[in-house]
Write a structure and sequence with these properties.
The structure holds two protein chains of two kinds.
Chain A: E1 2-3, H1 9-37, H2 41-44, H3 58-66, H4 69-100, H5 106-116, H6 121-135, H7 142-166, H8 170-178, H9 183-194, H10 196-212, H11 216-219, H12 228-234, H13 243-263, H14 265-272
Helix pairs in contact in A: 1-13, 3-13, 4-7, 4-10, 4-12, 5-7, 7-10, 8-9, 10-14, 12-13
Chain B: H1 2-46, H2 72-80, H3 83-113, E1 115-116, H4 120-128, H5 135-146, H6 153-169, H7 174-178, H8 192-220, H9 224-232, H10 237-248, H11 250-265, H12 269-275, H13 283-291, H14 295-325
Helix pairs in contact in B: 1-14, 2-14, 3-8, 3-11, 3-13, 5-8, 5-12, 8-11, 8-12, 11-14, 13-14
The chains are: A mainly alpha, B mainly alpha.
Chain lengths: 278, 326
């Protein structure tokens, strides 16, 4: 990593200032969202109250009292958590087998798995609604949301785990085999501890994608299993009305995940690279 | 004799072949069901006449083979529904614009912050944040509070600028110069064409952090000795970037392109929120449009979308697949 000591005096000031400027520009919309959430709906659209206004918690109080924020939030936590766990339970053994006992078809299977992510959700929405409502009777249940979230993220989860596992030297696993460790023991005692960082960042990314998913969660739920994306959907008033309220709901919906992202930033960087960086 | 063979025979395949297969089975089966059942139903619906409401032909409201239409739905979507080509064009336009913008911006910013300077950690946190924002919130936030020509910052900024110019016109000498300036109209991002730009802006904002993250990590593993040697040989910063950094980033760039293509081809929330009712659409949105009544046409469009996704996938995997597997 180079430092600015190499560059001229001008560069020493200019580049950090530019970096800060870019960062602030990128963060500005989020800042603005939080900022607006403390304005009343009326203040939010008045130009002369753009920066100077009487801050209020009214929107947040309104949101928890009248819009049942906590129920949506709890649903989001439940569905994202279980979907992530399920994706790992299914994904870890599969990725393990592909990484350590690859067959001729492993590559094709991986590519095919990723290709299922390219199926446009809209194309299968109608059949899915039809099936879940009329045949399986699971519409608007946590079970359905968890299954769907798990399935749409499974390809990414397997890919990520696969790239992590591939970096583990095979000899270690072989040595375990020599010592007569069972397959489950291999996974539990050798693989997971070695690939712990990779598994954690995979889980994290999966959780974030689950939390932010808005296509299926909005369309396959009504009330019981509705997540925060449904709450946003319901508060999306037509143009310009209720900016204050909308901002509060939005800020409360993205807040937890943004903060989680900040804390796990380093871990996430590893996970996102799909083994691209060695 | 057969008995003596058995343990060995049994043991070998179990450990070498069967078990790995068994471990993959749940994942493969789940994804297979997830793909085949809805896809099969979509395929079936695309070949029959199937509408949700019809007073004239109530028999079309239940899916049945007796309403067989052959390729009629496909013909209808291709030749009679005017929006199909617009939607395909728009899908590709949005995906490719976002990819180009995020890669260029991501590279520039990653290089910019890949040095130690005061507050580097905070800069990183600020830059990454947009990636965690829910797509629906992203769209609502941008289209209403920032890009709205009247109530958003876009409108307010233009209004302020006009007021400023108006004030300057009052000045004795300078006024005659400023009086030539026209009143600026804020750009409305709700019109058919401009709404695609709005979508590109918001998706780029959200996914540039993803590109930055990946490029940044990769830059840190760059060979510094090689770089120092290049500096000694008198290579300028641009030449260093072109000849050393860019080749080093080939694989991360491939990954950014591929992952984004996967996610943005099925872009929906942003399009729905920005473009509702103004005629602009991409392929998933067009499917949603049809699905309000004409399930047959929606399914046929869905099959076209699958075909398009596969074309893009084959193209991308040719490009990227090899470097991913090595």
């Amino acid at each position: 990593m180079s430092t600015y000591s190499q560059s001229s005096n001008f560069g020493k000031v200019f580049w950090p200032v530019l970096a800060w400027t870019v960062a602030l520009i990128f963060f500005f919309p989020i800042f603005w969202l939080i900022f607006t959430s403390f304005k009343t709906d009326a203040d939010a659209v008045k130009p002369d109250h753009l920066f100077i206004f009487q801050p209020t918690l009214e929107n947040y109080i309104n949101m928890t009292e009248n819009y049942d924020y906590w129920r949506f939030a709890i649903n989001s936590v439940i569905t994202s958590t279980f979907a992530t766990i399920l994706a790992l339970i299914v994904g870890v053994p599969a990725a393990y087998a592909m990484a350590f006992n690859p067959s001729r078809h492993t590559k094709d299977i991986l590519v095919w798995m990723l290709s299922t992510k390219m199926l446009p959700a809209a194309a299968v929405l109608y059949p899915m609604t039809f099936l879940t409502k009329n045949f399986l009777d699971v519409y608007d249940t946590h079970f359905l949301v968890i299954m769907v979230l798990c399935l749409i993220n499974l390809p990414i989860v397997i890919w990520m785990l696969f790239t992590y596992f591939k970096e583990i030297p095979r000899e270690i696993i072989e040595a375990g085999k020599m010592d007569g460790v069972s397959t489950w023991g291999e996974i539990k005692d050798i693989l997971i501890p070695l690939a712990w960082g990779g598994v954690a960042s995979t889980a994290l990314l999966c959780f974030i994608f689950c939390w932010n998913e808005a296509y299926w969660t909005v369309r396959l739920t009504t009330t019981e299993a509705a997540t925060l994306s449904k709450l946003i959907e319901g508060n999306r008033a037509p143009e310009g009305l209720f900016f204050g309220r909308l901002s509060a709901v939005s800020a409360a919906a993205v807040g937890p995940i943004v903060v989680l992202g900040w804390f796990c930033q380093k871990q996430l960087v590893k996970g996102l690279t799909f083994g691209a960086v060695k | 004799m057969a008995r003596q063979m058995k343990p060995g025979r049994f043991y070998k395949p179990m450990s070498k072949r069967t078990l790995p297969r068994l471990l993959q089975t749940p994942a493969v089966l789940l994804l297979l069901f997830w793909m085949l059942i809805p896809l099969g139903m979509t395929l079936y619906f695309s070949f029959i006449r199937y509408v949700l409401n019809s007073l004239r032909k109530p028999e079309w409201t239940t899916p049945s083979l007796s309403n067989w239409r052959g390729f009629g739905n496909y013909e209808y979507v291709l030749f009679n529904a005017k929006d199909f080509w617009l939607a395909v064009q728009n899908s590709l336009f949005i995906v490719s614009s976002v990819i180009v913008l995020t890669v260029v911006l991501g590279l520039a910013i990653a290089v910019l912050i890949n040095r130690s300077f005061p507050g580097q950690g905070i800069v990183r946190v600020l830059l990454i944040s947009p990636f965690f924002v829910m797509p629906a919130v992203n769209a609502v936030l941008w289209i209403n509070m920032i890009l709205d020509p009247v109530l958003g910052l876009n409108g307010l900024a233009v209004e302020g600028l006009n007021a400023l110019v108006g004030g300057l016109k009052e000045f004795p000498v300078l006024g005659s110069f400023f009086s030539l300036w026209p009143e600026i109209e804020p750009i409305s991002f709700r019109a058919t064409q401009t709404s695609a730009y709005a979508v590109i802006i918001m998706v780029t904002w959200q996914w540039t952090p993803f590109a930055i993250l990946i490029f940044m990590t990769s830059l840190q593993s760059e060979d510094q000795q090689q770089k120092e040697a290049a500096i000694l040989d008198g290579a300028g910063p641009w030449s260093q970037f072109r000849n050393l950094t860019l080749p080093h980033l080939a694989r991360p760039i491939a990954i950014v392109v591929m992952i984004q293509a996967i996610f943005h081809l099925s872009l929906y929330a942003e399009i729905e929120i920005v473009s509702r009712g103004n005629g602009n659409k991409n392929l998933p949105y067009l499917i949603g449009d049809f699905a309000t009544n004409n399930i047959g046409a929606a399914s046929a469009t869905g099959i076209f979308a699958v075909i398009l996704a596969n074309i893009v996938a084959i193209f991308l995997l040719r490009m990227v697949g090899k470097s991913l597997m090595d």
